[in-house]
Each structure stands twice: as C-alpha cells, then as structure tokens.
From TrEMBL:
GO terms for cellular component: endoplasmic reticulum membrane. It is found in: Endomembrane system. The chain crosses the membrane at residues 123-141, 161-181. PROSITE patterns: ZF_RING_1, ZF_RING_2. CDD domains: RING-HC_RNF113A_B. Keywords: Membrane, Metal-binding, Transmembrane, Transmembrane helix, Zinc, Zinc-finger. It is a multi-pass membrane protein. One of its GO terms (molecular function) is zinc ion binding. Residues 11-54 form the RING-type domain. This is E3 ubiquitin-protein ligase RNF170. It comes from Linum tenue.
C-alpha cells in the first residue's frame, strides 16, 4: 500500500502530474513546490489556506515516493521547504473546530500505518493509542456511567459520545505529534 495521491489525480494548483506530492491536514494532495508557492505568495507569517477547501494547512506530509527520492537535489530542496513550513505551523495548537476537522485525516493515516507491516510506529505511541481506545471502549460498553442511560434514556448516551470524542481527539493529537516530528520537527 503506497502512501501517495490517487493514481489518476493531478495537482490542483499546476494541473500537472505530482512532483514531490504532499498531503495537507485537510486530506488534499499538492505538489510540494506548488503549495509552497501558494504560501509564499500569501502571508509568510501564517499558515496558508488550502486552495480547494480553504481550511488552514497546519501540516504537510510528503508522500512515500517523495521520501524515497530525497537524495535527488530538487526533491531534497522541496522537502527542506516543507520541513520548514511544518516547523513554523505544524506544532501550533489549533482550536477545537480545527482539531475536529483534522480528525478524519489523522485517524485514516494512523489506521493505515497500524495495519501496514512495512511501517512501524514507536512502541510507546502504539501502547498509548491502544490504551486510549481500550479504556474508552470499556467505559462506553460498561453499565457504569456518569449519566445513566436507564434513567435519562438517549440523553444518557451523551457521556459515552463525549468519552469517544475525547479518545479520538487524544489519539489524533498523539499521531499528529508523530507526523510533526517525522516530517517537520526533526
């Protein structure tokens, strides 16, 4: 399973084949150089907005093909720019709405990484993810609740939904930090 843009897709900025493909936290793919040009033509002191969905891009993750070709000077230059961008904006804490919008991106990538035997997360990160998921599942399935369903009916499910949301936000934050250190914070 190659971690890259869809096979017949093209960069929505230059409308050409991807050169050093990078995926933004909104799940859209761009050429690394193209998205860096978008950022440079805007405000250099804040993260650029996705040209497709207008969400703030706070993390760019290079595709596996770009990482394999990092010895090529042109690819290396683009990866250095992407790494600089991630250092500037990848570690920034964003609001709850931004985190919830990023949640599907991080959960999808994390799930792919957990299922791919070729890629490995550090054992500590895996353990934290599994513990968070198991504890939230146990709480959700247990008859003991902060707001009991037996008394309040469907309203009693609110605490279960809140626990699951907090679990997913925690797991996404853990994985975001992994991606940040892997692609920008080193």
């Amino acid at each position: 399973m190659d971690d890259g843009p869809p096979a017949n897709d093209c960069c929505s900025i230059c409308h050409g084949r991807f050169k050093v493909p990078c995926q933004a936290n909104c799940s859209h793919w761009f050429c690394g150089d193209c998205i860096m040009l978008v950022w440079q033509h805007g405000s250099a002191v804040q993260a650029c907005k996705c040209p497709l969905c207008r969400r703030s891009i706070t993390l760019l993750v290079p595709g596996q093909a770009a990482l394999r070709d990092r010895n090529d000077t042109e690819v290396s230059e683009v990866l250095v720019k992407v790494q600089r961008y991630n250092r500037l904006f990848g570690g920034e804490t964003s609001g709850l709405i931004q985190r919830m919008q990023d949640l599907p991106f991080f959960i999808r990538r994390l799930f792919r990484e957990l299922m791919d035997p070729q890629r490995s997360l550090p054992l500590v990160i895996r353990a934290r993810v599994y513990i968070a998921v198991i504890l939230s599942a146990l709480y959700t399935l247990s008859p003991v609740d902060i707001i009991p369903e037996g008394i309040l009916g469907i309203v009693g499910l609110l605490d279960d939904a809140l626990i699951l949301l907090l679990c997913f936000l925690h797991v996404a934050a853990i994985y975001r930090s992994v991606l940040y250190f892997r692609h920008g914070g080193s």
